[in-house]
Design brief:
This protein has 369 residues and is α+β, with helices and mostly antiparallel strands. It has helices at residues 2-12, 22-26, 178-189, 197-216, 221-225, 284-287, 292-308; strands spanning 43-51, 54-64, 67-74, 81-88, 91-96, 106-111, 116-123, 126-134, 142-152, 162-172, 234-246, 249-259, 266-275, 280-281, 331-333, 337-342, 355-360. It has three domains: 31-134, Beta Barrel (Lipocalin); 142-281, Fervidobacterium nodosum Rt17-B1 like (Heat Shock Protein 90); 284-367, Heat-shock cognate protein, ATPase (Actin, Chain A, domain 4, Alpha-Beta Complex), CATH 3.90.640. The protein contains seven helices and 17 strands.
C-alpha cells in the first residue's frame, strides 16, 4: 500500500497519505526560491520549460569552475539523460548523452541571475528555441560545495608530474527541516555525525594528496628523464549530481574517476534513490515483489538491444561479458519508470562505458508492490 501511494505521489504530484501531516508541514518552502545562475560560484537548481513541443525538467548543477553537470528528462517519459557543459564568455553550451556519436545534441544559450536559461537546442538535424525557468516548488533545495588541490611528485625536479584532485558534493539547504537534513547528510557522507560540508569535501582530496606523497618516495627522477613521467600524473575526480528531484523522491548520483598509472583510469557512477518523506533509501528488493529479477532480466536485455542496436538473433555475450543482464542495486526511480546502471566491467568491457537501462512502469505492473 505504501509503495502504491508513493507512486501516486510521483505521478500526480501528491504527497502519500502515510507521510502527510507534520512532515509535509515542516518541509522547506521552496516555491519562491531562485538561484542566481551567473553570480553563484557553485549551485544546484531545477529548471522547467519547453523545447519544441516537449516539456522538460532539467536538474542543473555547477560543480566546478566553468563546469556544468546534471540530468534532464522529458516530463512525458521520465527517462533521465546525462548532461555536461561549460561556459565561454556569456555563452553556455550543455551537451546531452544521446548515445549517438555521429550527431551532437546540446543546449546553447545564456544564464541569468533571475534563474533563467534560454537559447537554442540543437539535435536530430533540427533546432528549437527554449526558455527554462527556475521551478523548485516540489524539489528539495540543495547546496553544492567544491574543493581542489594539486601536489608535485618531485618538487625539485623541473617538469615534475602532478597529482591533481577535485571533489564536489551536495548538501541539504540550511532551511531544510532537521530530520530530513540529518537523513540527507547520512546518505551523502555515510555518517550522520558529519555536519561540516567544507571539511567533508576536502577529506577525499587530503587522502589522495597523502597517498601521492607516500608514492613519491618510490619515484626516481631518472624515470622522468626517460619519458616515463606520464604514468605519475595521477588524477582523482569526484562529484555528486541530482538525477531526479520531485518531493518526496530524490535521486543522487555519486561519480568517481581515478587514474594512478596504467593503461587507463577507472570510473563509475553510483545512485541512491531516497524517499525524503519516509527518510529511507528505496531499493529494488523493497520496490518489487519477490521473483522480480527473473522478470526484469529479459526486459533489461531488450532495453540493451534497443539502446545499442543489437539484433535479436545476436547473442548478447558477443557485445557483453554476460549472456543476460541481471538487475543490480544501482537503482534509479522517477515518476515514469526505473533504471539500472552498470559500471565498466560489470556487464561489459571498459570501452563500452557505464550502461544505464531505463524501464517504463508500463512494463513493470506485474512485479510492483
Amino acid at each position: 500500500m505504501k509503495r502504491v501511494l508513493l507512486l501516486l505521489a510521483l505521478a500526480g504530484g501528491l504527497l502519500p497519505a502515510c507521510h502527510s501531516g507534520n512532515q509535509e508541514k515542516d518541509r522547506q518552502d521552496t516555491a519562491s526560491m531562485v538561484v542566481p545562475l551567473l553570480s553563484t560560484p557553485y549551485y544546484y537548481t531545477q529548471l522547467k520549460g519547453a523545447v519544441g513541443n516537449r516539456q522538460i525538467t532539467m536538474e542543473l548543477l555547477k560543480t566546478a569552475p566553468n563546469l556544468f553537470r546534471g540530468y534532464y528528462y522529458d516530463d512525458s517519459t521520465g527517462q533521465p539523460i546525462s548532461i555536461w557543459g561549460s561556459q565561454e564568455a556569456d555563452q553556455v553550451k550543455i551537451y546531452e548523452d544521446n548515445g549517438n556519436r555521429e550527431e551532437e545534441r546540446f543546449f546553447g544559450g545564456t544564464l541569468s541571475d533571475d534563474g533563467i536559461f534560454k537559447g537554442v537546442w540543437h539535435g536530430d538535424s533540427t533546432s528549437y528555441h527554449f526558455e527554462l525557468r527556475t521551478d523548485l516548488r516540489k524539489a528539495q533545495a540543495l547546496k553544492v560545495y567544491y574543493a581542489a588541490d594539486s601536489v608535485q611528485l618531485l618538487p625539485s625536479f623541473t617538469g615534475s608530474p602532478l597529482g591533481i584532485a577535485s571533489n564536489s558534493i551536495l548538501w541539504p539547504d540550511p532551511a531544510t527541516d532537521s530530520a530530513t537534513a540529518a537523513f540527507l547528510r547520512k546518505a551523502i557522507t555515510g555518517d550522520n555525525r558529519v555536519t561540516d560540508p567544507e571539511r567533508f569535501v576536502k577529506r577525499a582530496i587530503d587522502s589522495f594528496v597523502t597517498s601521492y606523497r607516500i608514492a613519491a618516495r618510490d619515484a626516481d627522477s631518472s624515470d622522468m628523464a626517460d619519458g616515463q613521467s606520464a604514468s605519475w600524473n595521477w588524477t582523482t575526480e569526484s562529484d555528486m549530481k541530482v538525477v531526479y528531484n520531485t518531493w518526496p523522491l530524490l535521486v543522487i548520483e555519486k561519480y568517481a574517476y581515478d587514474f594512478t598509472g596504467g593503461a587507463h583510469g577507472n570510473s563509475g557512477a553510483f545512485y541512491q534513490t531516497l524517499d525524503l518523506a519516509g527518510h529511507k533509501e528505496i531499493t529494488p528488493d523493497g520496490f518489487f515483489k519477490p521473483g522480480y529479477k527473473e522478470v526484469l532480466s529479459p526486459l533489461l536485455d531488450k532495453a540493451f538491444r534497443k539502446k545499442f542496436h543489437i539484433d535479436e538473433d545476436e547473442s548478447l555475450d558477443q557485445s557483453l561479458l554476460v549472456k543476460t543482464i541481471v538487475p543490480n542495486n544501482n537503482f534509479i526511480v522517477t515518476h515514469k519508470g526505473v533504471a539500472f546502471s552498470y559500471v565498466p566491467y560489470e556487464i561489459g568491457p571498459y570501452a563500452l562505458g557505464q550502461v544505464t537501462l531505463f524501464l517504463p512502469f508500463t512494463e513493470l505492473k506485474s512485479i510492483m508492490k
